[in-house]
């Protein structure tokens, strides 16, 4: 049977929007890390991290093809739409996974490669195959996979794991639940239809709103930690404090508005703002402690 897949379908398997966040946060880890890595090797390392993230996405879509077909948000993905076969997606993901890990080990070091391999394993096996279908805490625990890229970038340069890299990991880790649960409030019917035990489906929307508020309260001071620990400057302090207050305000609004169109709009606003918040924190770090410190 002749494949109906186009290059665009295989690009879609890589989840490019998710990959862009991975690449950006990994870049921050590379730039902030002490020491130096040749620009060509830095670019190659970043490419390997991107390919590894894309491979995770492809394997996630391979395993989740059955539930993707039931959800309006994902039903047009290449596999449920019938343009890419399960075998093609599996082979694509496995080949890219092996390539990204081996090449990262060769161009950077094997600690970074090991972290990338563990991240792929965690996202595909621990999150996708186990947690996603078995517990409403899937996003909390599974969020670790999305938090590793700055740590991998740091390790690629230094060959070590540091306090700074761990703090960047924790910021993304605690950011993930309020970010995705805000989306889950908007897509709870989709998740219920697919049998995915997301928190709004299992525990109800009231509990989800409370958990969003709790995690936002924890995230706000954690976001300021890079400045408090001395590896970020006053610009970051202002951005992180303002952004943390914005996250708290959004979470309080979501918690307060319980039903109807205003509640859905509040969840949508928090979801959108959370993306801006994380991007702003890492962008300020990149400019303030990376580009400015290195070139000015």
From TrEMBL:
It comes from the Bacteria. It catalyses: heme b + (2E,6E)-farnesyl diphosphate + H2O = Fe(II)-heme o + diphosphate. One of its GO terms (biological process) is heme O biosynthetic process. The keyword Phosphoprotein does not apply. It is found in: Cell membrane. Its EC number is 2.5.1.141. Keywords: Cell membrane, Heme biosynthesis, Membrane, Transferase, Transmembrane, Transmembrane helix. Pfam families: UbiA. InterPro entries: Protohaem_IX_farnesylTrfase, UbiA_prenyltransferase, UbiA_prenylTrfase_CS, UbiA_sf. Pathway: Porphyrin-containing compound metabolism; heme O biosynthesis; heme O from protoheme: step 1/1. GO terms for cellular component: plasma membrane. It is an enzyme of class 2 (transferase). It is a multi-pass membrane protein. The chain crosses the membrane at residues 18-37, 43-63, 84-104, 110-131, 138-161, 167-186, 212-229, 235-255, 267-287. One of its GO terms (molecular function) is protoheme IX farnesyltransferase activity. Carbon 2 of the heme B porphyrin ring is defined according to the Fischer nomenclature. Belongs to the UbiA prenyltransferase family. Protoheme IX farnesyltransferase subfamily. Converts heme B (protoheme IX) to heme O by substitution of the vinyl group on carbon 2 of heme B porphyrin ring with a hydroxyethyl farnesyl side group. NCBIfam families: cyoE_ctaB (TIGR01473), PRK04375.1-2 (NF003349). This is Protoheme IX farnesyltransferase. The lineage of its organism: Bacteria, Pseudomonadati, Pseudomonadota, Alphaproteobacteria, Hyphomicrobiales.
